[in-house]
Amino acid sequence: MSEQERPAASEGPDVSDGAASDPALGAPAAAPPPRPPRFRVVRGLWEWAKSVQVAILLFLLVRAFLVEAFKIPSGSMEGTLLVGDFLLVNKLVYGAEVPLLEKRLPAVREPALGDVVVFQWPEDTEKHFVKRLVGLPGDTLEMRAGLLVRNGAAQDEPYVQRSVALREPGGDEFRWQRDYLTDGPGGRGFHPTRNDWGPLVVPPAHYFVLGDNRDNSLDSRYWGFVPDSLMRGSPIFVYYSYSPDSGRTFDWLTRVRWKRLGDLIH
Q: Which of 28, 194, 214, 231: CA 20 to 30 A from 148?
């Protein structure tokens, strides 16, 4: 047979059929045995566990540096926030604290007059309060017949709510203010009450906060200034809300305030 008549050697397929050839025997090698079901179950559980770990890590990072959820337990901010509101709080805005290092990230901006703020209560830092910031470092504040005066100018506060009080507290609850009065410690004729106090000066690196529900709020009038190191963030919006009712077992499902969901906080 001439060289031209010899059949051309066939080229092998680009993709094998799964059975490798045995060069010694010229026959395809046996396919590996299928893995037992138990192996597949263990592998699936391992993959699931890895996904859960990643999800938990992302949750912790978001909670530490970006946003955190808070629930409103009292009526001190009624008119703006209600008992049973659940808030998402922007922790990055004032500089989120780095866990374990006792350091804070750079702030996006400083707390501003009129901000609704979340902070650690100076009397017990395990507790978080939500109030409105009404006094900046260096401000001179006083209240006359319930009207807030800042640096000599009466403040327009449309968000303030009032209620009828049986008794206006005064006396020892406000004794702390004596050291910050404009006419010096002690103050001549200083007899403060909830709606009449000051004038006092906010010290550096501190803030003065009040609840919008002025007649039912435990705030700076009673326990003093908030150090800037205790500021934790500013609420963004209400992501869930219900009207608590101790007489109903599933009040969190049956008494949802649908109209408040997604409300921005000002």
A: 231
- Nearest-angstrom CA–CA distance, 176 and 239: 37
Query: What does the DSSP 8-state code read for residue 87?
Result: E
End-to-end CA distance of the chain: 97
Query: What CATH number does the domain located at 69-260 have?
Result: 2.10.109.10
- Domain map (residue ranges) of the chain: 35-65, 69-260
Query: pTM score, two decimals?
Result: 0.75
Amino acid 205 reads A
List, for residues 201-237, the tens digit of each pLDDT value: 999 999 999 999 999 999 999 999 999 999 999 999 9
d(CA 43, CA 81): 48
Give residue 266's identity as a one-letter amino acid code. H
Q: Which residues are catalytic?
A: 76, 131
Q: Which two tokens stand for residue 25?
A: 């025997």
